Amino acid sequence: MSSSVSSGVSMQSGRDTETKTVPGPILLLGAPGVGKGTQAKELIKTWNIPQISTGDLLRANVAKGTKLGMIAKQIMGRGELVPDSLVNEMVALRLLEPDTATGYILDGFPRTLVQANWLDGRLAAQPEALPLVAVSIQVNYNQLLRRITGRRSCPVCQTIYNVFMHPPQRDGFCDVEGAALIQRADDTEEVFKERMRAYAALTAPVVEHYRALGRFAEVDGDRPIATIAAGIVAAVERLRHTA
Ligand code: AP5
Ligand code: MG
Q1: Confidence (pTM)
Q2: Whole-angstrom Cα distance, residue 212 to residue 208?
Q3: Which of 29, 36, 184 should be mutated for ligand 1, with most atoms under 8 A from CB?
Q4: 110: cis peptide before it, omega within 30°?
Q5: Considering 122, 146, 184, 211, which one is annotated as catalytic?
Q6: How many whole angstroms separate alpha carbon 207 and alpha carbon 27?
Q7: CA–CA separation, 138 and 230 (whole Å)
Q8: Pairing relation of β-strands 160-162 and 24-29?
Q9: pLDDT, position 30
Q10: Which segments of the chain does DSSP mark as H helices, in order?
Q11: What is the Cα–Cα distance from 211 to 218, expressed in whole angstroms?
């Protein structure tokens, strides 16, 4: 694909004259279970940019038994947040990967004002980088609880299911890979409550920070997955073409 990424917000695909938005950095904000991971996987289909989920990166560190993973495991198990310095360093390393050149979807980051200020400063130091666009997803508490306790995922392809709302065709197994589905250790009602407390105290102010900066959209996350994804794509397109 030929592209004119440096020109700002559009690129041409192939030999035709179709102009596509260059997505740049996109933040998906929202409480545990609003569908950040689910929507990130939908947006990849539109823009072919990577999902950077700090939760997934931390869980990979836990699984590998790295020093970071050993620190994070206990904290995540309690539903609290991993220290900013460790998370920022992990994200900094991920953003050095070449697949982030035309954009990336940040899922679960930034989650504190310290992380947001770090990210804002990093982007400000890169004059060629597009400003970020923030999308906040809203879902009510009872629905979130149902989503969290019903969530299962495939350890091979990471497809996310829900035993109540969109179960796999064969109970307990991935439709794509056939692998046995797994449940996250922190997907209990007790830990969910603590994650919600951390969200209200530390992450809700991040949403207000990006609302105040502009290039911000709010979407109703209590709709079919494809409908929400279409809404996010439309919002990002609109915000990218807003001065
Ligand atoms: P993280 O992994 O980010 O967890 P979270 O924020 O609690 O969010 P979730 O992954 O639970 O929900 P989601 O919004 O991705 O929803 P999903 O798409 O899966 O973080 C885990 C922990 O890591 C934190 O508690 C913290 O300790 C640590 N951490 C991570 N980032 C950090 C940071 N930046 N700083 C410090 N610590 C950090 O969907 C949920 C369910 O709903 C699924 O079953 C899905 O199938 C279903 N669903 C989704 N959309 C719909 C829909 N439209 N209709 C019906 N069902 C749906
Ligand atoms: Mg997630």
Answers
A1: 0.92
A2: 6
A3: 36
A4: yes
A5: 184
A6: 10
A7: 15
A8: unpaired
A9: 98
A10: 36-47, 54-64, 67-78, 84-95, 113-124, 141-150, 189-198, 204-213, 225-240
A11: 9
Whether 151 lines ligand 1, by a CB cut-off of 6 Å, is yes
Retrieve residue 128's tokens: 């060629």
Location of structure tokens 């589905």? 181
Q: How far apart are CA 241 and CA 234, in angstroms?
A: 11
Structure tokens, 29: 């904000």
CA 130, 136, 137, 142: dihedral to nearest 10 degrees?
A: 150
- Sole residue written with tokens 């360093």: 89
CA 114/CA 51 separation, integer angstroms: 21
Confirm or reject: Cβ of 79 under 6 Å from ligand 1: yes
Q: Please write the tens of the pLDDT for every residue from 100-157.
A: 999 999 999 999 999 999 999 999 998 888 999 999 999 999 999 999 999 999 999 9
Tokens coding 130: 């597009």
